[in-house]
Amino acid sequence: MYPRVVIDQKKLYENTKIVVDKAKEKGVNVHVVTKVHSADIKLAQVCLDAGAYGIADSRIKNLKKLESLKCEKILLRLPMHSEVDEVIALADISFNSELSTIKLLDVAAAKANKKHRIIVMFDLGDLREGFLPEEVDQVIPEILKCDHIVIEGIGVNLTCYGGVIPTHDNLSELERLANHIENTYHIKLNVVSGGNSSSLYLLDGSDLPSRINNLRIGEGIVLGREAAYGEQIEGTNDDAFILEAQLIEYKTKASMPKGIIGMDAFGNKPVFEDKGMIKRGIVAVGRHDVDHGALIPIDSRITILGASSDHLILDFTAAQEEYEVGDIVQFKMEYGAMLRLFTSEYVDREYR
After folding, report:
1. What is the tens place of the pLDDT at every residue in 259-291?
2. Distance between CA 320 and CA 280 in Å, rounded?
3. Residues spanned by CATH 3.20.20.10 within the chain?
4. How many whole angstroms from its chain centre is CA 232?
5. Closest Cα partner for 214 from 340, 49, 28, 65?
6. What's the CA gap between 134 and 82, in Å, rounded?
7. pLDDT of residue 44
8. 244 neighbors 4 (Cβ within 8 angstroms)
9. Which residues pair with 329 in a beta bridge?
């Protein structure tokens, strides 16, 4: 059935191995981020087979899907108060930046007769989650009072919200915090987690501080690309995942709508370019399923004009008569497109 995502498991394995091996050379282990494919257990296992140290996901429901995998599991998104029992049951480690949540995790862990490990997150400028560095001596003593919480390490998230690129300078601040915590509180931090796929470019030089020993990698594995500058990682594949959608209409029509232009189905007023009569095609996938702005037609003669909920409108003018209704159109995709495709129940998966 279409639309579907076609997954080349060999290429995914190759991408994972290249990234994992590159990281290992710098003394860094990799947790593969599984949210991009909605915690598909087959694909998570491929990455583990290729050498990933463990898995990381932002959703507790996704960790539930992967419960049977024998590996370390991290909950990336800060736990909600309402899910602390599930966090203790399903995550070996969780990322945290709120004392109230950590104290609830402590209670839940005591109830389950467990010790729960946490990564204490610090905000180094990207303005997403994390304690401020100057709060370190307020929060660490409070966490150490929790009998069933173990401070496994500290971490940072960069790029995802504020676009701040990981550098030697800001990651050295994380290293400084790690050294301060260990020297002041006489505890050992096993993990200093230096970010996500935007930190991968630092593996190629000498700018990665020596104490950074963990990265959480999603985009770098599924697309083979570092996320700071968007450069392809040498030897990786950018086509391990391909969207295939079927052509359901193929006609010559005007490039400009006829009539008074109001709002579209999403509350926006569209703007059109007058190109005269063009060959327009519709494929059966839409904004309900995918971020169409993050799709790349494999046939470079095709351009994306726009999308409604269930229809993707394409310009086939440069391809002329080479297509007909029923044909399959293929797309590479950016991270955002893949993220949405895998959460749509209307998009099938084919494993090769």
Report:
1. 888 888 788 888 888 899 999 999 999 999 999
2. 10
3. 9-222
4. 16
5. 28
6. 29
7. 98
8. yes
9. 245
Eight-state DSSP code of residue 17 = H
Is the separation of the CB atoms in 19 and 220 below 8 Å? yes
For 259, 277, 278, the CA distances from 318, given in Å and listed in that order, are 27, 12, 9
| Peptide bond just before 297 cis, omega within 30 deg | no
CATH superfamily of 9-222: Alanine racemase (3.20.20.10)
Cα–Cα distance between 31 and 73 in angstroms, integer? 8
- DSSP notation for 110-166: HHTT--EEEEEEB-SSS-SS-B-GGGHHHHHHHHHT-TTEEEEEEE---STTT-PPP
**What amino acid positions are annotated as catalytic residues?**
35
- Rounded to an integer, what distance in angstroms lies between the CA atom of residue 155 and that of residue 303? 41
List the CATH code of the domain at 241-351: 2.40.30
pLDDT at residue 273 in the model: 85
Q: Which residues of 230-263 are buried (b: 16+ CB within 10 A; e: fewer)?
A: eeebeebbbebbbbbbbbbebeeeeeeeeeeeee
Torsion of CA 62, 63, 67, 71, to 10 degrees: 130
Q: Where is pLDDT greater, at 338 or 262?
A: 338
- pTM as predicted: 0.94
